[in-house]
Amino acid sequence: MSSRVQIITEPVDISRSIFDLLGGEPGVRALVDRFYDLMDIEPDLKELRAAHGPSLDEARDKLFWFLCGYFGGPDHYIQRFGHPRLRARHLPFSIGIVERDQWVACMGRAMEDEGIEPALVERLLQSFFGVADWMRNREG
Ligand code: HEM
To answer: Has UniProt tagged this entry with the keyword Metal-binding (predicted)?
Structure first.
């Protein structure tokens, strides 16, 4: 048995930030817009949509600002609102397994629609799943 580390995922170019790989601000904006467009129209994401208010406009801006910093770009969210404290900020919304899974599925479809490289999609979905799971605040 070789002592080499087993490579279990496709390699991703780590010489550039994820922010750059996604096309900077225009790329992140397009991803977030596709994410909320899908949330608005896809019948199998209806519980996730119902957890949001009538308008998704504020959520679009906030997720865009947040993801720019999360992916290694400018810290627009922190400059406006301070530390993200995502779990605390999500406590007003009921989040269980259904909402977690619909959020991650919605993001996966949005990334595919935006033509993001499959190896990067896979890696980002794993990381988003961890965050979304930690956001759960309801049994079931
Ligand atoms: C990886 C998972 C997630 C990330 C990165 C994320 C990110 C964010 C961010 C940055 C905000 C803005 C917070 C603020 O300043 O008020 C937000 C708001 C919100 N999130 Fe999430 N979220 C995630 C998962 C979820 C899930 C699973 C739900 C399910 C219900 C959810 C529902 C909401 C709602 C309802 C808002 C308020 C939108 C508004 O202001 O109109 N989020 N989220």
So the answer is: yes
Residue 90 CB-density burial (10 A; 0-12 exposed, 13-18 middle, 19+ buried): middle
pTM confidence score: 0.91
* Ligand 1 binding pocket includes 90 (Cβ within 6 Å): yes
Taking only the tens place, the pLDDT of each residue in 29-40 is: 999 999 999 999
Q: How far is the CA of 70 from the centre of ligand 1 (A)?
A: 14
**For ligand 1, mutation pick of 38, 103, 138 (most atoms within 8 Å of CB):** 103
CATH fold, domain 18-135, is Globin-like (1.10.490)
Domain residue ranges in the chain: 18-135
